[in-house]
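Field guide to reading this record: the first block holds the primary sequence, the second block holds the structure written as discrete tokens, and the final block holds curator observations. Each block starts with its own label. This record concerns Signal peptidase I, catalogued under organism Methanosarcina spelaei.

BLOCK 1 — SEQUENCE
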Amino acid sequence: MNKKEVLQAAIVLIIAIFLFKALIPFITGSEKAFIVLSGSMTPLMLPGDIIVVKSVDLNDLTVGDILTFQDPGGKPNTYVTHRIITLKEDKELIFKTKGDANNAEDNFNVTASKAVGQMVFVIPFVGYLPKIAKNKNIFFLMVILPASLIVIGEIWNIILYSSPQHARKIERKRKKTTTKAFYEVKGKKLTALILINGLIFTGIITQNLGENGPVILNKENNIENSGFLSMIYVFTPDDPKQTLSIDHWYGVIPQNNETQVIAPENTPAKLNTVPYILPVFWILELTKINPYLPVAAEIVVYASIFTLILLPIWYRKSTIGGRRKRIRFYRMFAQWKRTFRFVNL
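BLOCK 2 — STRUCTURE
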């Protein structure tokens, strides 16, 4: 195996290991996926998103965690995902929950026997795919039509090759026109595109950042978004127990708008603001790790996406046969120029 084949095999192996590790929890049942149907937890998760729920030791859950549980009304195959606001232990753990978008807490208690697990990840908009697949027109365009074209193409090939004489003629033509193809990464162009896209999105994102850093919250606090993109804000109090006492401790502000946040007087906290171009859940989780990570993640994600969109510029297919034809053309062109000069003389 040459270096290129070794590299390709290594990439395939890494992807296979990643997919295997990602799918194992779903196969074993330790993780489950649910489609979000309502807006009670917006903007953290939106209708049409898919959430990943992990089976955990309920004793490890704390106030502020997001719990998925069976519908309290007893509807089969129906689940609710809300944030834990209080918990107490009686004969079993009892949770009090509330949707982030709801003004009041839930009017029921959630017992441990009804709990399914903790919500640990959000995949945006993927939940719409099953609904889209049920649309007859979309199903025809995306599945039936391409499959029909493939079948027609195969039938046509069978017809062409049904005659041995005709088949030999086609093969002779193919051998004459066969070219050895290989793909080449244009390293300089790729590096230039990464740098350009990185600079562009760094400028866009930094221009749309709001106030960031330590703050002392008053009873009423106004947060302004003067950028041209919607903005996510996150308050992280120095005392994590005060998080849910800030109304609302995170949210989305439309462009050229402002919102008011109510908090206990003189609450020390850190404020983070970033453009709303990644899911809110991702931003909150990255903020927990490091307040600068959301900005870095947005730059990297969008610079990478646009670099991939421009794939034809830095990743090209070359053919040896095609190169020979170009060389032959250049030779003919040079000969024609020499002849033309001779005639003019």
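BLOCK 3 — OBSERVATIONS
The chain has a mean pLDDT of 83.
The first helix runs from residue 3 to 28.
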